[in-house]
Design brief:
Blueprint: H1 2-35, H2 54-59
Organism: Cetraspora pellucida
Protein name: 6878_t:CDS:1
Length: 64
């Protein structure tokens, strides 16, 4: 009887530990997701930030 109880207690504690670990992992992921803000990179080959003069654009092969 005691052995059965011990086994049951061990199994239940394992299940609880797994649940707690899963919850902790999820919380850590949420924290890191809040900290990291992903900046989208745009393709600046065709849309330069500054307006270039035609001579500079010809030198850098950017179509104006």
């Amino acid at each position: 009887m005691k052995l059965k109880l011990k086994k049951i207690i061990e199994l239940e504690s394992k299940k609880l530990n797994e649940l707690v670990l899963k919850r902790l992992k999820r919380l850590e992921l949420e924290k890191t997701n809040k900290k990291i803000k992903v900046k989208k990179k745009t393709n600046n080959l065709f849309e330069p930030k500054k307006k270039l003069s035609r001579s500079k654009a010809k030198k850098t092969n950017i179509i104006t």
